Amino acid sequence: MDNLWIKSAALAGDFVVLEPLQLDHVTALAEAVTDGEAWKLWFANVPSPEQMQSYVEQAIAASDNGDIAYAVRSKLTGQVVGTTRYYQVDAKHKRALIGFTWYAASVRRTAINTECKLLLLQNLFEKYGAIAAEFRTHFFNQPSRAAIERLGAKLDGILRHHQIMPDGSLRDTVVYSIIAAEWPAVKAKLMSKMR
Predict the structure, then answer these.
(1) Residues 6 or more apart from 64 whose CB is under 8 A from it?
(2) Which helix (H) or strand (E) holds 66?
(3) What region, left, alpha or beta, does residue 109 occupy, with left being phi > 0 and alpha being psi -120 to 50 degrees?
(4) Element holding 140 (H helix, E strand)
(5) For 94, which DSSP code?
(6) In this predicted model, what pLDDT tens digit does every residue of 72-123 receive, in sequence order?
C-alpha cells in the first residue's frame, strides 16, 4: 500500500494556514521559538533556534515515510508562529499521530491551536477516512495534556519508560486518541470554540 496516504498540501482556515514545511521556514521558526523559549522545558521536545535547521531537515526527510510536517502561519500577522505534523502515518490501518506541535508563547491558548487541530483532524477523518487520530505527550507536560483533553481526545493509557530524553531521564508517554465515531462531536466542540 502507498505509504504516502496523506498528501502534502496547505490547509487553510480563518486564523491559520498550515504550510507544508520547507527549508525556507527555518529562519521564521527560529525566531518564533524564541517567544517563550519552550526548548528550555525539560519535558518538551522543542528545538532551540540553533537546532532549527536540523529539526526542519529531519521533518522534511520523514516525508519519505508518509509523515507531513507543517509550518503554522497566523493569518492575522502573516508570521510563522510554530509547527505541527502528522507522524507515524499508517496507511494500512488508516490512522496517524498528530504532534511535534509547538507555538510561540504569544499565540498559545488562542484560536491558532484550536483551528490547527480542527484542520488536521478534519483533513484526516473527512478527506482520508481515518479510523483514529492519536496524540502522545510526556506524562509531566501538563499544558499539553490539558490541551489534548480540551480537544475531546480520550486517554488510552501510559507507556511507562517509553523514551530516553536528551537529559537521560526516562519519559512516561501519555497516549490519547479520537476515533472516527467521536469525530462529529469533537468537530462540533472545536467549531463552537472557534465562534
Answers:
(1) none
(2) none
(3) left
(4) none
(5) T
(6) 999 999 999 999 999 999 999 999 999 999 999 999 888 999 999 999 999 9
Contacts of the segment 78-84: beta carbons below 8 A, 24+ positions apart: 79/28, 79/32, 80/25, 80/28, 80/29, 80/31, 80/32, 81/32, 81/106, 81/107, 81/112, 82/29, 82/32, 82/107, 82/112, 83/21, 83/25, 83/29, 83/59, 84/18, 84/116, 84/120
Kindly state the DSSP code that residue 110 receives in the 8-state scheme: S
Angle (CA) 119 114 19, round 5°: 45
**Residue 151 grid cell:** 480537544
Residue appearing with cell numbers 497566523: 74
Angle (CA) 18-63-116 rounded to 5° is 20
Phi, psi dihedral angles at 7 (to 5 degrees): -85, 145
Query: Would you state the cell numbers that stand for residue 51, as one nine-digit string?
Result: 537546532
Q: What is the pTM of this model?
A: 0.94
- Could you tell me the pLDDT band of residue 3, with boundaries at 50, 70 and 90? low
What the chain holds in terms of domains, given with CATH numbers, is 11-194 (3.40.630.30)
